[in-house]
Every structure is written in C-alpha cells, then in structure tokens.
Design goal:
Blueprint (H helix, E strand, L loop, with lengths): L10 E9 L2 E10 L5 E5 L9 E3 L4 E3 L1 E6 L20 H12 L4 H17 L2 E8 L15 H13 L2 E8 L21 H14 L4 E3 L1 E3 L7 H10 L7 E5 L3 H11 L3 H8 L6 E5 L5 H10 L2 E4 L1 H6 L7 H7 L3 E3 L9 H16 L15 H17 L14 E4 L14 H7 L6 E6 L2 E5 L2 E2 L2 H16 L1
Parallel strand pairs: 1-4, 6-7, 7-8, 8-9, 8-10, 10-11, 11-12, 12-13, 13-14
Antiparallel strand pairs: 1-2, 2-3, 5-15, 15-16, 16-17, 17-18
Length: about 475
Amino acid sequence: MSADAAPGPVALWAPLAWLPDGWRENVVLRVGADGRWAEVTAGVAAAPADAQALAGPLLPGVVDAHSHAFQRAFAGAAERREDARDDFWSWRERMYAVALGIGPDALRAIAAQLYVELLRGGYTHVCEFHYLRRDVDGSEYRDPLAMSWALADAAADAGIGLTILPVLYERAGFDAVALRDEQRRFRADARQTRDAALRIRAAGRPLVDAGLAIHSLRGAGATSIAALRTLAAAEAAPIHIHVAEQTGEVDDCLRVTGKRPIEWLADAGVLDRRWHLVHATHATADEIAAVAASGAAIVLCPSTEANLGDGLSDLPGWLDAGVPITIGSDSHATRDWCEELRLLEYGQRLSRRRRNVAAAPQLGVASTAERLFARIVAASAAAAGQPSWGLVAGARADALVVDARADALLGVPPERTLDALVFSSPTPPWRNVMVAGRWRIRDGEHAAAETIGAQFVAALGAQDG
C-alpha cells in the first residue's frame, strides 16, 4: 500500500506565501518533473492559466527533526503515577516494555498512523532516530534492516518524506560496558550503524534518505564515537545525538569525564555542521558559544521535554548565538509544529515572567512566531540531509495551504497569519498538504487515513493481547 496522493498541479499561485525573506504577495510556484520547485516568483498579479489559485496563504512544510515512531504506541499511556515519584527514568522503563513487543508489521502500522498525523500537523518530512532494530530476543533479523524497511514502507503508505538515522548504541550508562537486557533490541556498533545508513541510501526509495545517529554520550563510548566519525569522514550526511536532556545525565558525565556533555563534545573537537544536538536542554553560556563556533545545530522537542519533565532550554541564548534550530515531536505526545512553537515560547514566558521572549525587534523581527518559524525552516535542510528547504527553487515541493476559513484566523490580517496559527489555539487544520509536488492531504482529508487507522488499532490490540 502506498499513499493515494492526488496528482499535483503544474503550478500554484498563492495570494500570500512565506519565502526566505518573509511574507510575499502574489507568488507563482512551478513544480518540476523531479518533484522540486522549478520556479518561485513573487509579484505576479494574477494566476497564470496553468496555475492552481490557492484560497489561503502558503507556507513551506516543516521538518520533524526528531522522532521515535514506535513511541506513538505509548502516547497517552503513561500519564498516571502509581509510585511516590515519576520522572524521565521511570517513564523510560515503561517505554522499554512497549518496545519489546513491537515487530516489523506492527511498527509499520504504528509509524504509518503517526506519519498521517504528522502530515495533518504540518510536517512533510520526518527524521527517525532509529534504534529499535533487532528482533525481540536481541538477535539480528534475517535482514538486519527489517525494522528500517518497516519505517520506509510506513512513510510510503502515508506519503511523507523520511530520513532514517540508524543509531550507535552500545552501553546502558557511563559506567556500563554493555546494554541492559531490556535494551537488547537496540544494540549496534559503529560499523553496523554506518553500513545500515549506506544500505538505506543505496536502496533509492522515493523520498527516503539516511544519516547517522549516536544515542548519547552515556550510550556510546569515546572510542566508538571516534570510529563512527572516521567511517563517515567523507560523508555530508547529518549526525544526530541526544545530549544534556536530563540533569542526571549531566551529573553522571561530570562525575565520569570531568566535563558536561556538550562541553565534552566541543572539547573533543567532534562537532561540525553535520551535527545536530537533540534537546541540549541543560547548556551553559560557554557551551552555547562553543556550539555556535562549531557550526553545529540543536533540535528542540518542547512537548516531549515538558511531558518528561526535562526542563527548559535557554532559548534566548541559542537564538542570540545564531545556532541553527529545528524542532522534533520525539515521543509524539504532540504531533503539531504550531503546538511545539507555542509551548517553546510559553515555557520561556513562564520561567522569565515576560512576553514575546523570542521576538527580536532590535533585528527588525517583532513577531515571535515569525522569528521561530524562520529559524526552523532555515535549519531544516541540514537536519534532514536535504540540499535545500522551503519555498525556493531547487527545494522539494513541500507546502502547506492555510485554511483561511478557520476560526482562529477570522478577522486576522493575512500578514499576521503565523502569529495566529501559533498563538491562537487550537491549531487550525491545514486545507492542503503537498509533498514532492503531490497533494497528500486535500480539503483536510488524507486518502488512506481510514485504512491506516484501522491497521494502527489492530496493531495496538495485538500488543495488548
């Protein structure tokens, strides 16, 4: 099964579109045969005869830069506390129990449902931080990439772009020499990780690419990290790593290495423009400066960081340092980028007792939503391993058509669309969603949603059984 996408138009004409320099009026966008934008031209007063005139503003699709698709099966199922304390570490134990029961067929069903939901939430590409790779007993599947292909099949079912990030994962903590038994499905060394990425890339599946990932400094030792860097030295593919998500991780890293996690990465000289530091929640000013100097990026996951009680990032510090930023839905408590940006800003407002923390009027950007959105779009290509991103010639033809009839947008001046989308909840549904020049959602509907939903429910039922 693959997504039954409506054929895309030869061209679009948008009364308003978000280009790299902000809102522009009367924009024509032509789709090439390769599913990329062949031409983007503003100031065209009337729609050309061969163009589809859109009824609402046009935005670029958003990259979900951090996803664990299997955890969608767990969303909403860990919101009760039975013991004296509940935190990230106790949540993780319950998550492992879910992970041990998911095979390739179930993963495909779970991921396909997630990917439809991500499309509905305005994401057109997802980066899978993929460590659920081995069979239930910890042995290799006959094809070691069986779980990777399940993700790729799910992406085809939904019609979303996908970057699979095979994960180097070899130990349970800084003092451990191996993984715990409940982590047995995650094991992969540097060569297995790189070989998996090469095989995925060589398969040439439409809209599917691969990069690399390292679970964390607690999950991989310095020797293995160095080995992976050596194997991938000549490659431009992205490298993602969980880092400094929890204060406990920071404390353990200090105890064992004498350095904080981001400090360790910076001092080891491993960071460059390929690296994407996921969460980076607990960072000092010196660490932020070091990341900025290296050219590395960060991936913030506000809804997951809130759900797990991780803490709040120094958002103004990262923004002011010019560090590239993307967002991820991670554990999928939320599957909507507007909600992620809303929570990202609201967390800062609550902790600092100020409003519009991310806005930068001194830079000519008075809108919080516009500054955040511009930053995540600008960093999306590197996170996903794409050559470019956005409503620009050469980028993949991904786009979101805003439903101007939505309650949250009634009476809102068109140029304030992003402000209302992010800060007048709930998020209005997208009228149309395009991936690679083809409509995946049209008039708010996904053609395969009913079938995919039924398969998802069946997969969860089998897990419960």
